[in-house]
Write a structure and sequence with these properties.
By secondary structure, the chain is mainly β. The protein has one helix and 16 strands. It starts with 43 loop residues before the first strand and ends with a strand.
Length: 265
């Protein structure tokens, strides 16, 4: 399905701990602290990025993708946080679905809760996808809910996500892992890998029937560079390897890359 065909961190779990899929306590609230000391963050993360290809769950939706993301995290109690966010992306040269002259923009809104269970973090939440531009003619605006689980095994971060597309009535499952290799106090290398599985999943394509099965293996290598206490520049390179259902549908393997700048407030 070449749309002729994911799509940050554990951003690989599209809904989760930024709260989407998204992804408690009952004690009395602590006294309100003065807002805000220089060392305190407001829980706001603003980022802008460029990706040579916009890959969403194994499918190439657009090239030369420029995006901005705004996320808010609000601790409710010691172990529970509320998350909300929005992102907007656009194909800079109007190359949607690998077709020149086809415009594509995409808006995502999300909200959810994360629960710190000690040995693992659980996220539950909701995400709304709105498609714009020429490519929206074959894409459905979509509501999605999900649950994620993130934990560690030694130096390795592990995550599992389950997402239900309410609009398309399909399921998407994802497993991912990464680890951080510190080069110095400011620079790290973060290799990662993921694999997805779809059941009646349509990738939000109107009338699509891709079939059930594994979708794609994702491989990535990021290099976060801490510029200041609050700003991080992250170049990356990645590979998308369609398998099973997506391979049968004609999705191509490819290498792509990009860079993002994130600032926390």
């Amino acid at each position: 399905m070449k749309l002729n065909n994911l799509l940050k961190t554990f951003g690989f779990l599209a809904l989760a701990i930024t709260a989407s899929a998204g992804t408690g306590g009952g004690k009395a609230p602590a006294p309100v602290a003065p807002c805000c000391t220089p060392e305190e963050a407001l829980g706001v993360d603003l980022s802008v990025g460029y990706d040579s290809s916009f890959i969403f769950r194994g499918v190439d939706f657009a090239d030369n993708w420029i995006s901005t993301d705004l996320n808010l995290t609000v601790p409710l109690v010691d172990t529970v946080s509320l998350h909300a966010g929005a992102s907007y992306g656009v194909s800079a040269d109007d190359r949607g679905a690998d077709i020149g002259g086809v415009s594509y923009q995409r808006l995502e809104l999300n909200a959810g809760l994360s629960f710190d269970l000690g040995a693992a973090d659980v996220g539950v939440g909701y995400r709304y996808y709105q498609h714009q531009g020429d490519l929206s003619a074959i894409l459905d605006d979509t509501n999605e809910v999900g649950i994620t689980l993130a934990t560690t095994a030694g130096p390795v971060n592990l995550g599992v996500g389950t997402y239900y597309d309410i609009t398309g009535e399909g399921w998407y499952f994802e497993v991912a892992a990464n680890t951080e290799i510190k080069i110095n106090d400011s620079i790290s290398l973060v290799p990662g890998a993921s694999i997805g599985y779809g059941v009646d999943y349509t990738w939000q394509i109107s009338g699509a029937n891709i079939g059930d099965g594994f979708t794609a293996v994702g491989l990535s290598l990021a290099m976060p560079i801490k510029l200041t206490k609050s700003a991080t520049l992250t170049p990356y390179i990645a590979g998308n390897l369609p398998i099973d259902a997506l391979d049968d549908a004609g999705e191509d393997s490819q290498v792509y890359g990009g860079v993002s700048l994130s600032v926390k407030f």
